[in-house]
Design brief:
Layout lengths: L11 H11 L14 H16 L3 H14 L4 H19 L3 H6 L2 H35 L14 H13 L2 H21 L2 H8 L2 H9 L3 E8 L2 E8 L6 H16 L4 H10 L14 E2 L8 E2 L3 H4 L21 H4 L8 E2 L3 H12 L4
Parallel strand pairs: 3-4
Antiparallel strand pairs: 1-2, 2-5
Helix pairs in contact: 1-7, 2-6, 3-4, 3-6, 4-6, 6-8, 7-8, 8-11
InterPro entries: DUF2515
Pfam family, one: DUF2515
Protein name: DUF2515 family protein
């Protein structure tokens, strides 16, 4: 596998330029006021975001469709793949062995945690992506409209910079930072998720058993292999950002991008792990020789989310240091039998399941 030197992807002058632009931040109390065509465009984008934010499957497909139209927005493809994994985790909750670890109440709490995180990121990010799309169509910078969607001033600065300088990597890393701090402030701090998920023994057991693996399926000849990374200490925003950076470099600065992209186009996301390994997984509950992995619509119904409040997370310019460091490019292959080992570990921990 080839690798790329990532040290030169974002230069210090790029980060300093953003910091200087941030000095122009308007007062927090400045009222929002839009008129005419701006109002129509805002309403149009809100409708599109709401329609695509129906469930994990629609969100995941929306990211891929967007990347096909705008391949310069690397983050959209990364979001597609991470969202696929979010769907896998959601449907894993309906498998027999996971049910042996979690009560029905815990299963529901875990699903709501995954679903709300997935939908909150989409609600925040997809509006930004659509506004960029409109800016391209009109050949005009429309990012003055970002406050209408309660987007962080941090990202307004980044998008304005991208419009002029076109640094794809800087935009991608900034979006990774933004979305993780967004859910940190608006999702993970919720008492019910802290109590029912992040502080539960089952959550830490999943870490121990290696069940928090993010996988990117890709074609290797006629076979489908897996690459990716493990997620440890999900409760740490800095750890999540580091994982996001690692996955971004794997996706765009190894030689696997095209093979991963081909898989994504050929295999529409359903939420079932049989999408990438039908030899081990099946959507058929009665199949005795394979691991049951249902589709999302077989597992969970749609949820209606009310995003009534989005707090500004950007408070400290030390955040800019997160844009400077990018992990070295490396490919971490994951054995296709990884899931069987995890299942065996669960059985060993629960001999009567």
């Amino acid at each position: 596998m080839t690798s790329t030197d990532t040290n030169s992807l974002i230069k210090l002058e790029d980060v300093l330029r953003l910091q200087q632009m941030m000095q122009l931040k308007p007062p927090a109390t400045l009222p929002l006021s839009f008129i005419g065509e701006d109002v129509k465009l805002i309403q149009e984008i809100r409708k599109k975001v709401k329609k695509a934010n129906q469930n994990n499957v629609t969100r995941t497909q929306a990211y891929l469709d967007y990347y096909q139209k705008h391949p310069e927005i690397h983050w959209a493809f990364l979001a597609h793949l991470v969202s696929r994994n979010g769907g896998y985790y959601m449907t894993d909750l309906s498998t027999t062995l996971i049910k042996s670890l979690l009560s029905p109440e815990k299963q529901h709490a875990y699903f709501l945690f995954l679903e709300h995180s997935n939908s909150a990121i989409f609600h925040d990010a997809y509006a930004q992506l659509l506004l960029y799309e409109k800016s391209k169509e009109q050949n005009s910078n429309l990012f003055h409209l970002l406050p209408a969607f309660h987007i962080s001033f941090f990202m307004k600065t980044v998008w304005n910079d991208f419009w002029q300088h076109r640094n794809k990597t800087l935009l991608s890393i900034a979006l990774i930072v933004n979305e993780q701090y967004h859910i940190e402030k608006n999702v993970l701090f919720k008492k019910e998720f802290q109590r029912d998920v992040l502080h539960s023994w089952q959550f830490h057991t999943q870490n121990f058993l290696g069940m928090t693996q993010i996988v990117f399926p890709y074609y290797s000849g006629n076979n489908i292999d897996l690459c990716g990374t493990k997620v440890y200490h999900f409760e740490s925003v800095l750890k999540r950002i580091e994982v996001g950076k690692t996955l971004y470099v794997l996706l765009f600065y190894s030689n696997l991008h095209d093979s991963i992209y081909t898989f994504s186009l050929k295999h529409p996301h359903t939420g079932s792990r049989s999408d990438y390994n039908p030899d081990i997984f099946t959507k058929n509950r009665t199949h005795s020789k394979k691991l049951y992995s249902p589709t999302l619509n077989m597992s969970w119904g749609d949820r209606v989310h009310l995003f009534l409040r989005k707090d500004e997370w950007f408070e400290d310019e030390s955040i800019f240091s997160l844009l400077e460091s990018i992990p070295a490019s490396s490919v971490k292959k994951i054995p296709i039998q990884h899931h069987i080992k995890v299942q065996s570990a669960i059985k060993a921990a629960n001999p009567f399941s």
